[in-house]
Write a structure and sequence with these properties.
Layout (H helix, E strand, L loop, with lengths): L18 H31 L9 H58 L1
Length: about 120
């Protein structure tokens, strides 16, 4: 015959728990307790490390600085786009001016070649 204490808990017919389950429960409770203490110690240390007094964060000042930085960034980006567009327009103007100037010279070149021949 099989000794019921040697069977795992889920296979015991009478639902009586062995000493192993009690030990596992105690271990888990102890683990939770230590983990909770560790969390409390961690957060206490973290809160203590936050500067206080004259080094407090001024949210309105921080917001204003952030807003100014964003505005400067946008203005710089727009100026850069403006300069690059102006350069592109200048390059296109030069290209088309040279293209039409070259086309205007073409008949003169052919006429001069015919006269020389």
């Amino acid at each position: 015959m099989v000794n019921p204490a040697s069977l795992p808990l889920h296979s015991q017919k009478d639902g009586v728990s062995s000493g192993k389950v009690s030990m596992d429960t105690n271990f888990f409770e102890e683990y939770q307790k230590q983990f909770s203490q560790w969390q409390n110690k961690f957060f206490d240390t973290w809160v203590e490390s936050i500067p206080d007094g004259e080094n407090k964060v001024n949210l309105s000042d921080t917001f204003e600085k952030t807003l100014s930085l964003q505005q400067d960034l946008v203005e710089t980006a727009l100026k850069t786009q403006k300069v690059s567009m102006e350069m592109a327009m200048e390059a296109q103007e030069k290209f088309w001016d040279q293209y039409f100037e070259l086309l205007r010279r073409m008949p003169m070149i052919k006429t001069e070649e015919r006269e020389a021949a």
